[in-house]
């Protein structure tokens, strides 16, 4: 008897801007591997497709300018669909028929139009199999997704036994009850056409609870994989798939570093792998000391990003508890001693938080520069069900609750008027040219 078949779809990004900063649908790829281990025949259509991959695999996606959704008509910026053409999508769909179920993800709440379009096209071309929508948008905006997506089922929360039980209604599928694909499996990167880099995570969730962040909603428990399992994932990507650049997606890579990160990187160093590591999600700078900085350098971390978010002095701000300016100075100094240049140490700062002034962002940027690192602005996206949501709702001139498109950080949805346009002028004078 032929194995049941499941089609995974990573839909297009519809946005004002998008860049491939090691951006892959990690959760969907974990589900893909988990299903393969259960005997399912899995295929993937990656609508976003590979980027031009110019620097360590990162780069610009293909894009096509498209009309803005009606409610964004007043925004004076171009809107595009990033990824393959619809014709190419339909060609791939035609060549991969005979599925028992289709799983579609949507990685940002404001990217739902790409998922809706994929669902619409699949429904038209393959009217039989059930379509299940999951991912960040489905988890954070389940009512919106259930009302408007056109999917047969909306799965919210992390991939778990619930998702597999749902699939088991449509195909013979063993469900043990304690599945956690992120911890149990490596992501099925080999399903992607000609991947230029690997992505993976050594852990799930985050032990912190920053008020603007959805980590605890997307993965309620913080769990780390075993060091040996993480090492095997790296080996598989590097030696079997031949990938030299590998990005860590951990929210808290350095938690319990002495029993997790350090032994893992020691194993990597002993194996003399030809590999370059990147941490686009940011490291907790409080955890960076001489020992950790040395391992980062020796094991081949090329892209260092630290999470500071705001460096306002005497902070009345209590949005997170990640680090102080003193800890920033200490972390940067450890990284510099390990051999990193200032321009190689990036520090994420939030911009556009409810009630945040331009001066506050500027002050944080200056402090990062003074510490010997490079500030990177991370524009605030209001996220439903986070602690900061209510303040965001009140601060925003947009109906961010009714319409997830207004949660797009490109709109600076909670910043004071004029913040977006001014931003680029003063940013350049402080930071200089963005190497991207
Ligand atoms: S430390 Fe990072 S991932 Fe963890 S809750 Fe804060 S912002 Fe989210």
Features:
15 helices; disordered C terminus; 436 residues; alpha/beta; 17 strands; binds iron/sulfur cluster; Rossmann fold; seven-stranded parallel β-sheet; pyruvate-formate lyase- activating enzyme
How would you describe this protein?
There is one protein chain. Helices cover 33% and strands 16% of the residues. The protein is of the alpha/beta class and 436 residues long. Helix 13 packs parallel to helix 15 (419-431). Helix 12 links the parallel strand 15 and strand 16. It folds into 2 domains: 5-168, Cobalamin-binding domain (Rossmann fold, 3-Layer(aba) Sandwich), CATH 3.40.50.280; 197-431, Alpha-Beta Horseshoe (pyruvate-formate lyase- activating enzyme), CATH 3.80.30. The chain contains 15 helices and 17 strands. Strands 9, 12, 13, 14, 15, 16 and 17 form a 7-stranded parallel sheet that branches. It has a 5-stranded parallel sheet with strand order 3-1-6-7-8, sandwiched between helices. The structure holds iron/sulfur cluster (SF4). Iron/sulfur cluster binds at residues 206, 208-210, 213, 215, 251, 307, 320, 322.
Oligomer: single chain
What compounds are bound to the protein?
iron/sulfur cluster
What is the rounded distance between the termini?
51 Å
- Low-confidence spans: 313-319, 428-436
> Per DSSP, what share of the residues sits in E-state strands of 2 or more residues?
15-25%
Rg computed from alpha carbons, rounded to a whole number of angstroms: 21 Å
Mean pLDDT: 91
Structural class: alpha/beta
Mind telling me the CATH class of the largest domain? Alpha Beta
Number of strands: 17
Total count of domains: 2
Give me the CATH architecture of the largest domain, please: Alpha-Beta Horseshoe
